[in-house]
């Protein structure tokens, strides 16, 4: 990977004319012209568990060892649990991670999403979709369409059909008229990865910008050219990259890192026991241990799982930064056994 890349000015970012934003809106932020960056983008739906913390550490290591900035973006368009964001940030700091500039929030970036949809609509690439989830599930799939792809029910309706459907569902979702069935991305860990692209949702029926749109618009507006995240999102990358390319934005480099599994071999979750720093601290305080020791121990065990430390070795993120090399990362999932 090159140590540093200049980042061309993304085309969809708000220019000086975008004054419609509320004064506090992060959507009206000045165009990005700093160095390229990586990021961690948690959803504030609960506390970060060992798997999320490991992904955050990896995103930081990838960025900080390639001369990139590192940004934190809270993906709060839905699933917000009160207090979760503060606890997530505190846990990241407790591990020793830092980030550049203020934390951004998707809920403050609506202007950017609306602009992107406007640009796509002007190019004739947006259509209203009146389908319910159930209808999509039960619709016969289009010929040659892969499983799970939107079958295109609302793609080419006549004006009369559209009016009928709109009467039944006055708040339609908006979909991208995508034009391709698949797209190939480059991933540092997975190589060339080709995945399905369908007419993905851009804005949900309730008006909320869709995750795929928000992520693409934000990554470009923030100058993010390296996306490191869990490999459960690998299959979303082709859709997002295609959307970025359609919007004329730079497609980032991806590194989809292995997930952390619980003792039963399923994705790590609360049900697996003490999986967050707060859980571990609660267990520790019963045993009379010092609270600050929890994050240090969690960092050490994550580092061991990444083959960056010996079992029981005390490490800091700076030590790990000096040892990190993407090529020696374990490629399989880490099975975490809560104490
Ligand atoms: N907010 C997403 C999550 O917490 C991550 C999205 C991304 O990294 O692109 O799963």
TrEMBL record:
<feature type="binding site">
    <location>
        <position position="229"/>
    </location>
    <ligand>
        <name>L-glutamate</name>
    </ligand>
</feature>
<comment type="function">
    <text>Catalyzes the tRNA-independent activation of glutamate in presence of ATP and the subsequent transfer of glutamate onto a tRNA(Asp). Glutamate is transferred on the 2-amino-5-(4,5-dihydroxy-2-cyclopenten-1-yl) moiety of the queuosine in the wobble position of the QUC anticodon.</text>
</comment>
<feature type="region of interest" description="Disordered">
    <location>
        <begin position="1"/>
        <end position="45"/>
    </location>
</feature>
<feature type="compositionally biased region" description="Low complexity">
    <location>
        <begin position="27"/>
        <end position="38"/>
    </location>
</feature>
<feature type="binding site">
    <location>
        <position position="75"/>
    </location>
    <ligand>
        <name>L-glutamate</name>
    </ligand>
</feature>
<feature type="binding site">
    <location>
        <position position="129"/>
    </location>
    <ligand>
        <name>Zn(2+)</name>
    </ligand>
</feature>
<keyword id="KW-0030">Aminoacyl-tRNA synthetase</keyword>
<keyword id="KW-0436">Ligase</keyword>
<dbReference type="InterPro" id="IPR049940">
    <property type="entry name" value="GluQ/Sye"/>
</dbReference>
<comment type="similarity">
    <text>Belongs to the class-I aminoacyl-tRNA synthetase family. GluQ subfamily.</text>
</comment>
<feature type="binding site">
    <location>
        <position position="211"/>
    </location>
    <ligand>
        <name>L-glutamate</name>
    </ligand>
</feature>
<protein>
    <recommendedName>
        <fullName>Glutamyl-Q tRNA(Asp) synthetase</fullName>
        <ecNumber>6.1.1.-</ecNumber>
    </recommendedName>
</protein>
<feature type="binding site">
    <location>
        <position position="150"/>
    </location>
    <ligand>
        <name>Zn(2+)</name>
    </ligand>
</feature>
<dbReference type="InterPro" id="IPR020058">
    <property type="entry name" value="Glu/Gln-tRNA-synth_Ib_cat-dom"/>
</dbReference>
<feature type="binding site">
    <location>
        <position position="270"/>
    </location>
    <ligand>
        <name>ATP</name>
    </ligand>
</feature>
<feature type="short sequence motif" description="'HIGH' region">
    <location>
        <begin position="42"/>
        <end position="52"/>
    </location>
</feature>
<keyword id="KW-0067">ATP-binding</keyword>
<dbReference type="InterPro" id="IPR001412">
    <property type="entry name" value="aa-tRNA-synth_I_CS"/>
</dbReference>
<dbReference type="InterPro" id="IPR000924">
    <property type="entry name" value="Glu/Gln-tRNA-synth"/>
</dbReference>
<feature type="domain" description="Glutamyl/glutaminyl-tRNA synthetase class Ib catalytic">
    <location>
        <begin position="39"/>
        <end position="279"/>
    </location>
</feature>
<feature type="binding site">
    <location>
        <position position="154"/>
    </location>
    <ligand>
        <name>Zn(2+)</name>
    </ligand>
</feature>
<keyword id="KW-0862">Zinc</keyword>
<keyword id="KW-0648">Protein biosynthesis</keyword>
<dbReference type="Pfam" id="PF00749">
    <property type="entry name" value="tRNA-synt_1c"/>
</dbReference>
<dbReference type="InterPro" id="IPR014729">
    <property type="entry name" value="Rossmann-like_a/b/a_fold"/>
</dbReference>
<keyword id="KW-0479">Metal-binding</keyword>
<feature type="binding site">
    <location>
        <position position="131"/>
    </location>
    <ligand>
        <name>Zn(2+)</name>
    </ligand>
</feature>
<dbReference type="InterPro" id="IPR022380">
    <property type="entry name" value="Glu-Q_tRNA(Asp)_Synthase"/>
</dbReference>
<keyword id="KW-0547">Nucleotide-binding</keyword>
<feature type="binding site">
    <location>
        <begin position="39"/>
        <end position="43"/>
    </location>
    <ligand>
        <name>L-glutamate</name>
    </ligand>
</feature>
<feature type="short sequence motif" description="'KMSKS' region">
    <location>
        <begin position="267"/>
        <end position="271"/>
    </location>
</feature>
